[in-house]
Design a protein that fits this description.
With 607 residues, this protein is α/β, with parallel strands linked by helices. It folds into three domains: 2-165, no CATH class; 211-262 and 497-607, no CATH class; 266-495, P-loop containing nucleotide triphosphate hydrolases (Rossmann fold, 3-Layer(aba) Sandwich). It has 15 helices and ten strands. The chain has a ten-stranded mixed β-sheet with strand order 4-3-5-2-6-1-7-8-9-10, sandwiched between helices. Strand 7 (401-407), helix 10 and strand 8 (431-436) form a beta-alpha-beta unit. Helix 4 (236-258) packs across helix 9. The termini are far apart.
């Protein structure tokens, strides 16, 4: 507070000023001091007043805070009261409206009540009339009940009759459905029979070309040649083998006579088990528009050996036993499956032993594929397994090379039946193994399969040029061991002289007969040695002076003379017979093949 007073601060200055002498200044200083003191007193009063005012202000502030809290509480209470007032006002309005509506409804109901009272009076009159009508209706109802009972009885009879008719209708409907199915089956059967009939008529009506030379060759092989072979008195298995080979040569000559284009083609037999994909493999070399030509499927389908070779346009000819050429459509050829042939009633393969197809084949020029039946037991009951096995063996004997197919969808290696068949027919002809349907196997396993089949072939001593994993669907090989399929096809794709090969095959057969006959005659030569050995044994046992020895010596001498005479006759007869066979065979082959080989390709020259 002292900081606000002037006296303490001015006192030193006033004291020094008081000491100054000038006249009249002292009174002035006293007056100044008085004024200053008055100012200080006024300041003290003002300070006290300020403190009192501050105290009062604090009290007022406290009262103001309390008043503010009360005001807020009152405001909240006022809001609630306002809300309640609004709600009550709304309820009052609604109740007023409801009351007005009820009053209006009451007024309407009063009017309706008046109308209902008037209507009630009318209804009472009507009721009296209805009672009278009801009496009449009761009488009529009695009559109707009697009629209803009669109608109910009739309805029951009609219902029973309807149930009977419904049962008969259901039976007739079932019979109709069965007859419809039977009709559809009969219609399909009739269409199938019609197709078979047309095909057989087409085959049987084919007029064979006049070929006296072929007829003479076939007659000679079946007659005179067969009798001469039997007169050689060779073992039965040798005789049977030679006669089968002669039949194969006869069929080959007939094939070349019917299809001259095959004379310059290398024959490649596409062999393997049923459903190994032989037909798909062969069609893979055709143009795309003909790729579905050959029969394909899970069941064995190829029933007749089919020679497929390149040509300018598509042509299909069935070749009959009579030497006729029968043009076949795609649909007719597609019917020649095992199932179709099995239901013909006779063996079509005996009437039409083979089919020749020419089609555009851009990748080959001088190859003719033989699409042949599978050799092994078929999955279908209709397959002629024994006949197919024989056909496969005969076709293989004609082929210049063999492609053996193994289906990888059913086999993981070369089946035992395949190995057995290959061992029976293994010779010096080139062999290539194709693992077909390789796209169904992962690439990682194909190499293992190839190596396993390679080991089987090598262990069995079967020579082969290569093995490849092939996909007929993709039309390409995926992997190979040894030569690739394309390399082998290029090597095989060259022009050949089928006539010369037949001459050589015939000469090899006659040469084999000559060797077998010489072996038989060699057995007769051994009779002299055996007789001389017996003579020495008797001499050692009884001595040279014994009657037994002399009698045995005479008999053995006669036996030697007889053996020498037989040996001389047999040698001369067998040699002459074989030479006549050879010359007659060459003459007939020359007449059929229109080739004149002045020096027959004998076996020794061939070797």
């Amino acid at each position: 507070m002292s900081d606000l007073l002037l006296v303490p601060r001015l006192e030193p200055a006033l004291t020094r000023l008081k000491r100054i002498w000038p006249w009249g200044r002292k009174a002035l200083i006293e007056q100044l001091r008085q004024h200053v003191e008055e100012a200080d007193e006024h300041t003290l009063r003002m300070q006290a007043l300020r403190q009192r005012i501050e105290a009062e202000l604090a009290g007022v502030s406290a009262e103001l805070g309390a008043t503010t809290s009360d005001l807020e509480r009152l405001q909240a209470l006022h809001g609630q009261l306002q809300a309640e007032h609004s709600a009550q006002t709304q309820q009052l309005r609604e109740r007023t409206n409801a009351y007005a509506a009820l009053a209006q409804a009451h007024k309407l109901q009063q009017g309706e009540l008046d109308q209902l009272q008037r209507a009630h009076a009318s209804l009472e009159d009507a009721h009296a009339q209805l009672q009278a009508a009801h009496q009449r209706l009761e009488e009529e109802h009695g009559q109707l009940q009697a009629a209803h009972s009669e109608q109910s009885r009739q309805l029951a009879e009609h219902t029973a009759a309807y149930a009977t008719l419904a049962g008969e209708h259901e039976t007739l409907h079932s019979e109709h459905a069965s007859l419809t199915n039977s009709h559809a089956l009969l219609q399909a059967t009739a269409e199938l029979v019609e197709r078979r009939y047309r095909l057989i008529c087409n085959i049987l009506n084919g007029k064979p070309a006049e070929n006296p030379a072929l007829s003479e060759l076939k007659s000679w092989f079946a007659g005179e040649f067969a009798r001469d072979v039997q007169r050689l008195e060779l073992p039965a298995d040798v005789t049977s083998m030679v006669l089968e080979q002669a039949q194969s040569i006869s069929l080959h000559v007939e094939l070349l006579s019917d299809s001259p284009a095959l004379r310059t083609k290398s024959l490649v037999a596409v062999a393997g088990g049923f459903s190994s994909g032989k037909s798909s493999f062969v069609t893979g070399f055709m143009h795309r528009e003909h790729s579905q030509l050959l029969a394909k499927g899970i069941q064995p389908v190829t029933a007749i050996p089919t020679y497929v070779m390149p040509g300018r346009e598509l042509s299909i000819y069935g070749h009959t036993r009579k030497g006729a050429h029968v043009a076949l459509t795609k649909d007719e050829y597609a019917q020649l499956t095992h199932d179709f042939i099995a239901n013909m009633g006779f063996n079509v393969k005996e009437v039409m032993p083979h089919v020749v197809i020419e089609a555009p084949m851009p990748e080959v020029q001088h190859l003719a594929f033989i699409d042949m039946p599978g050799y092994d037991p078929a999955a279908s009951d209709t397959a002629d397994t024994a006949a197919d096995h024989g056909i496969a063996s005969a076709v293989l004997s004609e082929a210049d090379a063999v492609i053996w197919l193994v289906a990888l969808d059913t086999n993981g290696t070369l089946p035992a039946n395949d190995m057995e068949f290959l061992l029976q027919h293994a010779d010096d002809r080139p062999l290539y193994v194709v693992l077909n349907k390789a796209d169904l196997r992962p690439m990682s396993s194909l190499q293992d399969v190839i190596e396993e089949i390679r080991d089987h072939l090598e262990d069995s001593g079967i020579q082969y040029q290569g093995i490849c994993a092939y996909s007929s669907t993709l039309g390409k090989e995926l992997l190979h061991e040894g030569k690739s399929l394309s390399e082998v096809m290029q090597e095989w794709d060259h022009s050949t002289d089928a006539a010369l090969m037949l001459y050589k095959e015939f000469e090899a057969m006659v040469h084999a007969l000559d060797e077998y006959a010489n072996r038989q005659l060699h057995k007769v030569e051994n009779v002299n040695e055996l007789a001389h050995s017996i003579e020495l044994d008797i001499l050692q046992m009884v001595g040279s002076e014994s009657k037994v020895f002399r009698a045995a010596q005479n008999r053995l001498g006669q036996l030697k003379e007889l053996a020498e005479s037989i040996l001389g006759v047999e040698k001369s007869d067998a040699h002459q017979r074989l030479e006549n066979m050879r010359m007659r065979g060459y003459q007939l082959l020359q007449e059929n093949l229109r080739r004149d080989y002045r020096s027959p390709p004998r076996q020794d020259a061939q070797a």
